[in-house]
Specification:
Chain B: This is ABC transporter permease. The structure holds 2 protein chains of 2 kinds. By secondary structure, chain A is an alpha/beta fold. Chain A is built from 18 helices and 20 strands. Chain A has 3 domains: about 170 residues, 3-Layer(aba) Sandwich (Rossmann fold); about 70 residues, no CATH class; about 180 residues, Rossmann fold (3-Layer(aba) Sandwich), CATH 3.40.50.300. Helix content of chain A is about 30%, strand content about 25%. In chain B, strands 1-2 form a two-stranded antiparallel sheet. In chain B, helix 2 runs antiparallel to helix 12 and helix 4 packs antiparallel against helix 10. The radius of gyration of chain B is 22 Å and the shape is globular. The two termini of chain B are about 40 Å apart. The chains are: A alpha/beta, B mainly alpha. Chains A and B meet through helix 11, helix 12, helix 14, helix 15 and helix 16 of A and helix 8 and helix 9 of B.
Chain lengths: ~550, ~350
């Protein structure tokens, strides 16, 4: 179906793309066709292979197998950056501009026009003309760092297109923008489409796909699942394609008649200005509570505050009825709060050290008398952890950097469980791990709860939230809706996106997806505030 | 906190497959990578000069290694915790000078001190000065959050200047007996400084291997964010290590002063390069979280042996600087490949 292109060859056509990173298969026979002038959305869960496909399509990664053609002609040789740039333009998720240089310099970075010397006046003129061509209002002499996120992105788009490509790849371009910025970006993209530019638009946000795109392709587990025209495609069908039938079948509401136990974790009015509004949360023993929301929607900050990494501006935390000193990790640990950080590379692991050392980092006080840590006992403890969590390693002494992502994550979970916590706080515990490890990790969290501890999962992954007994949707730092087990995907996705939850805000659907994910850094959301869009505590 | 923790029993049926016993990986031998180098240096020394393999010469080499060794010990701990302290080379000179200045009487000696305190306080004073310097570094780096490299470089220059100012640029020869004892004494026929240095290295090695705070240093140096999330008090620990580094440098100053019977105005001047070279050759990572004290010790011995062999071989003095640098680079390259690790 993908090769059928009508009268004009496809702007880009890829088929049979295979890409492996070590033992991980990132793309398995993937295919994709974007017709000229088409706005094509690429959606899928984390780890579905979207980013890898972008790398392959932009010449940044070399596929192990498969074929890519642009306008019917084979893709340029691998490594011929200039030729790739003439074919395809890409705006990456992370800004690829040099903040200290001017707009003009950034536009012509590495390809200054003219001879050996740079003629600044001419360069600025050219830059001005280029920006005008794409309708970007920015002073060529301004430094990039003085520009707003949105203008920076427009400059990147102009730069990307100035090499002559008629295909623009946008990797989660809205992640850095607030609602108004997104509206303007979409306006700009529609203009460009009218000029005949084709897009490949990558987003987690289905609302944006509906708003902007003609066609959508869904990837799941490194494979192509579906390509369909957007109009007339039900959101349920899209979500089903992203999540997969087997996942939907595996979803079973947890047994409702669970013995009600004591509250293990309680917060009263816990708040961090600019991150989340006062939060009253009660987690009972044996219960898994999900906080559903995007990474920057306040959930991560809640997790960090519970773990003591972040001092709250107000409120109390109690564990098993005893108050916990907030803002101190040792106190939180002693109180019985185990923490699985969001980013295992940044906050989870000490890469050069062994599995044993990493897994026992929180329990060094218990591995020998008088402040000693006996290596034999460390190894013994680690061995039991390795067996309990089924960590694939050559032994406790293996450096943790040599493990696969899933097994690294298990080590982080082991570290959190090492002290037998009363409550486990896990932020995106299955971030970037393969399907098998994901099941295992979630199984571990479930078992922790089944043995009487409480667990909090902060995540925007539906699979993570599926094991929860109840799920609170957090949008812009506020709990906007609560779901008992057995919720429907679309309800929860809608609530996470800030669309009408159960009695939530009632914004018009086209601006419903207003995620200004970095409410902490940028100005307050631009839309007139409805209930769900205020990022800060009053 | 002596109860034994046991991991929660999350074992599930079917996952209890017996695991292979871990093999001893090459990592085990990384620490020993300089031992063959030391051996080869010994053979070269034996060929170059019959005086090399004599007790006096070898003891001399070891004795000269002690002061550098203590600085390397301090620097190694600081480097493992992910920081660096350049001011150690000034502390080794300043701490004795300040202590002597406070205890030497104002009249009747070539060096006019303040005479504020009795002479037995010289040793504790010297160590306190070292601790103060380390704590100041900690204040600059951890409280004010300024760049550690430049801050300690500034301290290096400032403290050197303070020493020159106080001593008026001259050597101080009137050293109290208590101050000179450790550097001069022989225990069991071997200089006391050597015993002490070995003991401190053993103590440090044991602490890094078997004490929770020692183990935590690797976590702090390897990934401070992760250490913090695991409940380690990162700043407190770093502060302690910086202070300890200052104390060790001051102690090295005591040994050095005792050994030569005087504090020269340039005591320790230019040593920091050798300190870093010995640490890196010995496998301490400059980015933190990597290396062992045994490796650092072999690094020190390697450097001192090279210098000794060069001296015995009668290298013209005008060429020693060139050869010194050359040999450090060669040693660096050798240790990089024998350990098989990138030194970044």
């Amino acid at each position: 179906m993908g090769a059928e292109t009508g009268e004009r060859p496809a702007a880009v056509h890829a088929e049979g793309i295979v890409k492996r990173y070590g033992p991980t298969v990132a793309l398995d026979g993937a295919r994709l066709t974007v017709r000229p002038g088409e706005a094509h959305a690429l959606v899928g869960r984390n780890g579905a292979g979207k980013s890898t496909l972008v790398s392959v399509l932009t010449g940044m990664a070399r596929p192990d197998a498969g074929r890519v053609t642009f306008d019917g002609a084979p893709a340029p040789a691998w490594g011929d950056t200039a030729a790739w740039r003439r074919r395809v333009a890409c705006v990456h998720q992370r800004s690829m501009t040099v903040p200290e240089l001017t707009v003009a310099e950034n536009l012509y970075l590495g390809r200054f026009p003219g001879g050996r010397t740079i003629r600044w006046r001419a360069l600025r003129e050219r830059a001005r003309a280029l920006l005008a061509e794409y309708g970007v209002e920015a002073d060529p002499a301004a430094r990039i760092k003085d520009l707003g996120v949105e203008q920076r992105q427009f400059v990147e788009i102009a730069r990307a297109l100035s090499c002559g490509a008629r295909l623009l790849v946008l990797d989660e371009p809205t992640a850095r923008l607030d609602a108004r910025g997104i509206a303007r970006l979409f306006g700009k993209l529609r203009e460009l489409r009218d000029q005949g530019v084709a897009f490949l638009f990558i987003s987690h946000h289905l609302q944006e796909v509906h708003e902007l795109c003609d066609t959508v392709t869904v990837f799941r587990d490194a494979r192509h699942v579906l390509t369909a025209p957007v109009p007339g495609l039900a959101e349920d069908a899209l979500v089903a394609a992203m999540t997969g039938e087997e996942a939907a079948a595996a979803r079973q509401p947890r047994a409702g008649a669970r013995t009600v136990r004591e509250a293990v974790l309680q917060t009263e009015g816990l708040a961090v200005d600019g991150h989340f509004a006062p939060l009253d949360l009660t987690v009972r023993g044996g219960e898994v509570v999900g906080l559903a929301g995007g990474a920057a929607g306040g959930g991560t900050a809640i997790g960090q505050t519970l773990a003591g990494l972040r001092a709250p501006d107000g409120g109390r935390i109690t564990v098993c009825g005893r108050p916990v000193r907030t803002g101190s990790v040792p106190h939180a640990l002693d109180a019985g709060i185990g923490y699985v950080p969001e980013d295992r590379h940044r906050e989870g692991l000490v890469p050069g050290r062994s599995v044993a050392e990493n897994a026992t980092l929180t329990v060094t006080g218990r591995l020998g008398p008088l402040g000693t840590v006996l290596p034999s006992r460390t190894r013994e403890f680690a061995r039991r952890m390795i067996a309990a969590l089924d960590i694939r390693t050559t032994g406790p002494g293996q450096p943790v950097s040599g493990l696969s992502g899933g097994n690294q994550q298990k080590v982080v979970v082991a570290r959190a469980l090492a002290r037998d916590p009363a409550v486990l706080v896990a932020v995106r515990p299955t971030n970037g791990v393969d399907v098998r490890s994901k099941e295992a990790l979630l199984g571990v969290v479930r078992e922790v709860a089944d043995r009487g501890s409480g667990a909090v999962i902060v995540s925007d992954e539906l699979d993570d939230l599926r094991i929860c007994d109840r799920v609170l949707a957090v949008f812009h730092g506020r709990v906007t809706a609560e779901f008992a087990a057995g919720w429907h995907d679309h309800e929860l996705v809608a609530a996470m996106e800030g669309m009408t939850g159960t009695g939530g805000p009632d914004g018009p659907p086209d601006t419903g997806r207003t995620a200004a994910p970095d409410t902490g850094r940028t100005a307050a959301p631009a839309r007139p505030a409805t209930d769900g869009t205020e990022g800060t505590a009053p | 906190m002596t109860e034994t923790a046991s991991p929660p029993a999350t074992r599930r049926p079917g996952t209890a497959a017996p695991r292979r016993r871990p093999r001893v990986g090459p990592g085990r031998w990384r620490d020993l990578s300089l031992v063959p180098v030391i051996f080869v240096l010994g053979v070269i020394g034996f060929i170059v000069s019959p005086a090399f393999l004599t007790g006096d010469n070898l003891i001399g080499v070891v004795q000269q290694s002690t002061e550098l060794g203590l600085l390397v010990l301090g620097e190694a701990l600081i480097l493992i915790s992910g920081r660096m302290d350049l001011s150690l080379e000034s502390t080794i000179g300043l701490a004795p000078v300040l202590a002597l200045w406070l205890v030497t009487p104002a009249h009747g000696a070539r060096f006019a001190g303040l005479g504020l305190l009795p002479s037995w306080t010289a040793v504790p004073l010297c160590l306190a000065v070292g601790a103060a310097v380390g704590a100041t570094n900690g204040f600059l780096i951890l409280t004010l959050r300024v760049n550690g490299f430049i801050a300690t470089l500034g301290m290096l220059t400032m403290l050197r200047g303070l020493q020159v100012g106080i001593s008026e640029g001259r050597s101080i020869g009137d050293v109290p007996d208590s101050f000179a004892y450790l550097g001069k004494a022989d225990w069991l026929g071997i200089p006391a400084a050597v015993w002490i240095c070995l003991a401190l290295f053993a103590l440090g090695g044991a602490a890094l291997g078997c004490l929770r705070h020692g183990r935590a240093l690797y976590a702090v140096g390897g990934n401070p964010e992760a250490a913090r999330a695991a409940g380690i008090r990162v700043d407190r620990l770093t502060w302690t290590v910086l202070t300890l580094g200052g104390v060790l440098a001051a102690f090295a100053g005591i040994l050095y002063t005792g050994h030569y019977g005087a504090v020269s105005a340039s005591q320790g001047n230019g040593w920091i390069f050798q300190v870093f070279a010995a640490a890196v050759i010995g496998g301490i990572g400059l980015k933190g979280g990597r290396g062992t004290l045994f490796g650092a010790l072999t690094g020190v011995l390697t450097l001192q042996l090279v210098i000794n062999v060069m001296t015995l071989a009668g290298v013209p003095p005008l060429w020693t600087q060139f050869l010194n640098g050359l040999i450090i680079i060669i040693a660096l390259v050798i240790s990089r490949f024998t350990s098989g690790e990138k030194q970044d």
